[in-house]
Amino acid sequence: MKRKALFPLFILFVIFFKPLYGEQTGIIQKEEVIVLFNKPLRIAAKEVADIYSGLKAELEKMLRWKLNFRPTVLLIKNRDVFQRMAGSNLVVAFAMPQRKLVVIDCSKINAYPFALGITLKHELCHLLLHNYIKRGNLPKWLDEGVCQFVSDGIAEILMYKKRSVLNEATLSGKYISIKDLTERFPKDEKPLLLAYEESKSLVEYIISKFGRNGILKILEYLKDGDEVDVAILKSLSISFDELERRWHNHLSKRITWFTYLSNNIYGMLFFLAALITIYGFIRLLKKKRAYKDEEDDYYFL
Predict the structure, then answer these.
(1) Which terminal residue of the chain, N or C, has fewer Cβ atoms less than 10 Å from its own Cβ?
(2) Among the three residues 132, 164, 186, which one is the final residue of a domain in this structure?
(3) Are 72 and 194 in a shared domain?
């Protein structure tokens, strides 16, 4: 390879592997993708190189845009190093569209079957969207919602998701306004989870009511430079505020206290059983103490 082609790769190594000084690294270069990795992750790197073409084809078919650039995928073995790069301990992957770069924390991903391919697809979707839509024109909620849709609901924080905070927000009426998710997501865990769930849910609602073409039309208008309010009005013939209101009504009908209790019945039964066990243990201790007091009284008489 020519030195000119190798230079950007060298820069990437200097930037991203400086914290891992002394650890061996490797490169797999294909016509469509470049994979950088710590040497112990060679098998995972080969998997990325092998599945990339299929994931690319799936994305292009779903979004009808060509992934006409060669991205770099960086696989990190060390969780601490990844967290310093990501700036968060909640995510397992992130994309840098300006560098056409995807970074994946393999210390977490490898614990879940098939997670590597699905996570890669999610992050490639970010690169594809930002390749066609200017950064200021693509709302964060739409970016994350579409990427979760194409990756079967998988988000960068999949590994930390234990329950549906959207169901809780629906019952309490304490949503995060979608417009507040235009530029960034919250940093704290619960609001962050809610932001991801709301984004996914709203995109799914649009698709269920207006078809996949509804989302694709919104993306096309954004690509042409329209703001999201205008893109939604042109594509769906309703205002942004009306869309959000209808979506909330849809959630309220779908999630009731009965469905919430039904979905969480096992957790509540487990909690109830734990309380009963604790109560029984306390009663047993009291009986033992009372019995001991009776014995003591008898001895001193």
Answers:
(1) C
(2) 132
(3) no
Name the residue among 40, 211, 219, 31 with its Cα closest to residue 125: 219
pLDDT band at 161 (very low <50, low <70, confident <90, very high): low
The pLDDT of residue 268 is: 42
Give the C-alpha separation, 166 to 191, whole Å: 10
pLDDT at 123 over 70: yes
C-beta atoms surrounding 278 within 10 Å: 10
Weakest-pLDDT range from 175-184, 221-230, 252-261? 252-261
The answer to whether the CB of 90 falls within 8 A of the CB of 192 is yes
In a domain, residue 88? The reply is yes
Regarding whether 254 and 279 lie in a shared domain, the answer is: no
Position of tokens 């770069």?
101
Q: How far apart are CA 42 and CA 299, in angstroms?
A: 75
The whole-number pLDDT of residue 120 equals 96
Among 132, 166, 189, the domain boundary falls at 132
Higher pLDDT, 37 or 6: 37
For 289, the domain range is 266-301
